[in-house]
Amino acid sequence: MKCSKCGGLAVINLRQHRLRLCAEHFVEWFARFTQRTIETYKMFAPEDKVLVAVSGGKDSLALWDVLLALGYQAEGMYIGLGIDEGIDYSHKSLDFCRRFVAEHHPDAVLHVVDVESEYGQGIPTLARTTQRGRGKPCAVCGLVKRHIMNRVARDGGFAAIATGHNLDDEVAVLMQNTLHWQTGYLARQAPVLAERDGLARKVKPFARIYEREAAAYALVRGIDYIYDECPFAKGSTTNFYKELLNQLELNSTGAKQQFYLDFLRAREAGKVAFEEAGPVELHPCQRCGQPTTAAGLCAFCRLWE
Amino acid sequence: MVQVIYRDKTWEVKPGSTVRHIIESSNLNPESILAVRDGKLVNDATIARDGDTIKLVAVVSGGC
Fold this sequence. Notes:
- The complex is a heterodimer.
- By secondary structure, chain A is of the alpha/beta class.
- In chain A, 46% of the residues lie in helices and 12% in strands.
- Chain A has one domain (27-278): HUPs (Rossmann fold, 3-Layer(aba) Sandwich), CATH 3.40.50.
- The longest helix of chain A has 19 residues, at 137-155.
- Chain B is mostly beta strands.
- Chain B has a 5-stranded mixed beta sheet, with helices on one face.
- Chain B starts with a strand and ends in a 6-residue tail after the last strand.
- Chain A binds chain B through residues 1, 9-13, 20, 23, 57-59, 138, 141-142, 168-169, 172, 211-212, 214-216, 219-220, 227, 229-230, 232-233, 236-239, 242-243, 246-247, 249-250, and chain B through 29-32, 34, 36, 40-46, 57, 59-64.
């Protein structure tokens, strides 16, 4: 199989783009495609400071790598969640982030927030001891991560928080929300979540990159990433939908991309409209000052009560 | 023979097959898998040669 650009040996076949690329041209294409996505959705400007949420996984490290390669002022942020579950998951994840910096971008800045040492409890303990987390650590984890990311972005003067969500992540969520007619979520799902009332802007520069392409980029660039998924994510519904969608993609090339882009275009053109909750009034939390819909403490501060 | 590695499993297949055939005959979806030989990514039309070690890498992750 030959590279569509140079005739050299292709390392990947991007069927939905009708492209077969060698390692060099794949890396070039990947960076250009990411840049185009950033520009298309007006995610951030070249002079902006961007906070990249890194987990040690392939998507977030690939994102940080490509943003630095494109010349952005991208700083990483790792949140230590205190997840061990017999495999020392959180410590290993942080090691991958640190190794990435040392081996690929020694001058890059990595912010580390350790939940356990900063707040007294890691996610597994919090999930067991709070009503919100009982039986669903991912709900507590999401809340804690959103709070800390927002705090670091606000305090550090970052224009946006960039996450490694790829097209497969987005399509899996879209499918779940469509099957359950979650109209509120369907109204909001987008590559950019605008900044408002103390909530930092959130962007997904890989929203049009297939998960397979992000993994391929990490492999080609020699980025060592944590292969094990979070022990709490095993058997998750999202991964089940991703496998279903890959089955669809196998039989209908480009189906995932088409589903997502057609959804965004149809909503933009007003061809479909979803019930959207009215504007919710946000107040500063009495303790941390972060925006909340609650009158007193925000959901994050209530966790530690 | 060709050694195939996927997660914590290892098995052998006869040389001469394409990577895609190895993936499909292992009941895996080529859309969810990448293949690495000698530490390098290879396309799925690559023919596995005698003595090769092909590592199959699952790409699906995340999903809280």
